[in-house]
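Troubleshooting log. The previous structure file for this entry was overwritten by mistake, so regenerating from the original sequence record. Sequence copied from the archived sheet and checked twice against the printout by T.R.
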Amino acid sequence: MLKVENASVFFAGRDKQVVHALDRVSLDIPERGFVVALGTSGCGKSTLLNAMAGFLPLSEGSITLDGKPVSGPGAERGVVFQKDSLLPWKSVLDNVALGLKFAGLPRNESRDRAQELLRLVGLQDFAKAAPYELSGGMRQR
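Regenerated output below.
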């Protein structure tokens, strides 16, 4: 379970005014839960997601995953960025396997797992393709 408790993020804004990007946000997301962050521009959606991913420290409050504090990025949490960041010189399969390699899986295991993940999202036929050969939706998957 991902648990956010009284999470607040403050920034120094223009004229040194304090900007409350998040103000005492609390929520629980159960394992395999599906949650949508919805709101107007500037309401803190991206700030909350960046804090949950471990990219941004909280000013106050806490974020835990299965009872362990989230204090930075980790392999146990995945992030899909708004703009993809695929490596254009690598195949689709190699792009998927890259994170698994960084997580310490041996090359053959990471490639097998990457092929399984491509099958899961219906992209198994594009494993050898270059990222530019994919549609925007396919790149996000």
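The chain has a mean pLDDT of 91. Archived copy saved in two places this time.
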